[in-house]
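Input structure tokens:
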């Protein structure tokens, strides 16, 4: 069976997501066979040759522009990395897990103490369907409704519009909403527009408006002022899985998935949501203590002493305003810290357990499994996304 496949990559490198996809593809190719690639870094639609002349065995491409139609006419094995359009029937589609993304963003803003919420996404047009934006909005709304809040209002940014005019409209919309306001942006680009609109409206971030984006593109998040929190997605693992699926197609295997999900792993918290948006000063002290000391063992009694109230009184305030117990919040913060270390570092599990103050690796594994329903090693292997 042939191993030296020639693969066309129509994937941009201008964004972190594209580079992570390419990194995952390269990792797979280095481990399995001798692939050669045709790739141009210019962007979604740049190629100096027609795809037919390249005589390739397979293709991986974004679902953008004329190249998609050209690739479909080739009739060769193909994997489509979703960006603008709906899934393409008959091909392997790589899609983001928008339901989990929306829920994760809502939970992050809830933990920050926000009681008012909004969503900012991209509008659907004839040339860009943006199904992911609508799905993220729906999941975000569902989680907030589940928590006892009304469905949040939404603002949709028309792609390719006059940004100066759109920002003014967005600023006028934000000013009319109750504050402090927690805003989920459909992606980091939308989040950057919300941040600029807040400046235009004179709304401080995060004191008046907290913002969480999606993709965790460190350049985009870093350019925002202040730096923007974002839901991290494991594009690299999705790239690896997409390459594995294309390999099976090129080898004419029948065991090929029709869909690959880009899993959300965690929220990378930055200054744009660095706030405890509750009025109770004792609760603020407690929440700040839990957040700041998530890297070490912490008891409920220690938190109560830091907050300056009795344990019983603090428990009551937690349940009334945060919808859960103090211990539940401690466990959540600790588990989130573990998850981030598993996904973002190559530290051995035993080293992570030791650094976070666990007595031994077995206790560490049981603690993590109780929250995530899988072992630390399985979580790392799947990139935080489950089986």
């Amino acid at each position: 069976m042939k191993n030296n496949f020639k693969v066309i990559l129509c994937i941009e490198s201008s964004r972190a997501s594209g580079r992570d996809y390419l990194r995952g593809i390269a990792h797979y190719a280095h481990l399995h066979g001798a692939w050669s690639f045709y790739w141009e870094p210019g962007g979604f639609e740049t190629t100096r040759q027609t795809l037919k002349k390249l005589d390739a065995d397979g293709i991986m491409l974004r679902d953008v522009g004329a190249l998609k139609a050209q690739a479909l006419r080739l009739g060769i094995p193909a994997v489509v990395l979703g960006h603008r359009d709906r899934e393409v029937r008959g091909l392997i589609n790589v899609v983001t897990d928008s339901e989990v993304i929306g829920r994760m963003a809502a939970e992050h803003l809830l933990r920050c103490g926000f009681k008012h919420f909004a969503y900012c996404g991209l509008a659907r047009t004839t040339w860009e369907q943006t199904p992911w934006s609508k799905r993220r909005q729906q999941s975000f709304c569902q989680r907030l409704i589940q928590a006892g809040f009304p469905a949040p209002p939404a603002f949709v940014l028309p792609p390719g519009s006059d940004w100066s005019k759109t920002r003014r409209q967005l600023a006028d919309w934000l000013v009319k909403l109750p504050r402090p306001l927690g805003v989920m942006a459909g992606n980091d680009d939308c989040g950057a527009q919300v941040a600029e609109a807040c400046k235009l409206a004179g709304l401080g971030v995060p004191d008046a408006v907290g913002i969480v984006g999606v993709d965790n593109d460190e350049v985009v998040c870093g350019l925002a002022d202040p730096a923007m929190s974002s839901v991290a997605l494991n594009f690299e693992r999705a790239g690896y899985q997409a390459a594995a699926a294309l390999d099976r197609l090129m080898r004419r295997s029948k065991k090929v998935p029709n869909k690959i999900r880009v899993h959300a792993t965690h929220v990378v918290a930055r200054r744009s949501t660095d706030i405890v948006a509750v009025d109770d000063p004792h609760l603020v002290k407690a929440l700040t203590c839990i957040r700041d000391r998530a890297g070490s063992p912490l008891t409920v009694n220690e938190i109560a002493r830091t907050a300056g109230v009795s344990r019983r009184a603090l428990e009551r305030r937690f349940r009334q305003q945060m919808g859960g117990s103090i211990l539940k919040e401690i466990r959540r913060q600790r588990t989130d810290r573990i998850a981030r270390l598993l996904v973002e570092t190559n530290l051995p599990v035993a080293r992570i357990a030791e650094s976070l103050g666990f007595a031994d690796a077995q206790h560490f594994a049981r603690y993590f499994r109780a929250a995530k329903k899988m072992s630390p090693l399985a979580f790392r292997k799947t990139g935080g996304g489950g089986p």
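Residues 6-96+234-264 form a domain with the Rossmann fold fold (CATH 3.40.50.2300). The longest helix spans residues 326-344.
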